[in-house]
Design brief:
heterodimer, A: 115 residues, 13 strands, B: mainly beta, four-stranded antiparallel sheet, 12 strands, globular
């Protein structure tokens, strides 16, 4: 398998549920990202991990909790979400060397609906 | 302030027509990168091109071409002889060197519909 793979593709959860989104990259990249894409809004960067360390956290509510156990895997743990959290969640990876960052490679996303 | 503007929310053309997607950016940096990504209905954003601020040469890749004009802060994307498979949302993005290496400033996207 190649590229960036996200599971599940679709997720419906209630506000009291706990679920996790999974992302796996097979590109040998050393940085991974979570983005949120809502209708009629620009893409929002949520978290960045570089070499398994979190380097960006863009004021994301604590009900979203990322985990990066190794450079190939990234999780987004979800709990007590709100209906406004319904969106497409995209995972991406890139190769970072010093100041140089390769273009992002994205997964197909997880379409999340919070009821 | 950093900003990327894609003024065209949606464009609809008939197959084989040429179409240009506009992107205007704002930055105070002299060193920056500009990107175009394509998002087909499947959801995955696909990288199309990256251009650095020191390279104003226009680029052509098959039916795709990009026109980078620093004088007008624009990085427009043209599809020649459009095809139905070109239907997607196209995003322009900006990255500044020296700022957070991981931050991309994204435009709102232009939805392109190619009718058969």
């Amino acid at each position: 398998e190649t590229g960036v793979t996200q599971t599940p593709r679709h997720l419906v959860m209630g506000m009291t549920n706990k679920k996790s989104l999974k992302c796996e990259q097979h590109l040998g990249h050393n940085a991974m990202y979570w983005y949120k894409q809502s209708a009629k809004k620009p893409l929002e960067l949520m978290f960045v991990y570089s070499l398994e360390e979190r380097v960006e956290n863009n004021s994301v509510p604590s009900r979203f909790s990322p985990e990066c156990p190794n450079s190939s895997h990234l999780f987004l743990h979800l709990h007590t979400l709100q209906p406004e959290d319904s969106a497409l969640y995209l995972c991406a990876s890139s190769q970072v060397r010093g100041d140089f960052n390769s273009p992002l490679h994205f997964g197909n996303g997880t379409r999340l609906t919070v009821t | 302030a950093q900003k990327v503007t894609q003024a065209q929310t949606e464009i609809s053309v008939v197959e084989k027509e040429d179409v240009t997607l506009d992107c205007v950016y704002e930055t105070r940096d002299t060193t920056y990168y500009l990107f175009w990504y394509k998002q087909p209905p499947s959801g995955e954003l696909v990288f199309l091109i990256r251009r650095n601020s020191f390279d104003e040469q226009n680029e052509i890749s098959g039916r795709y071409s990009w026109n980078f004009q620093k004088s007008t802060s624009s990085f427009n994307f043209t599809i020649t002889a459009s095809q139905v498979v070109d239907s997607a949302v196209y995003f322009c993005a900006l990255s500044e060197s020296g700022d957070s290496n991981y931050q991309l400033i994204w435009g709102a996207g232009t939805k392109l519909i190619i009718k058969p």
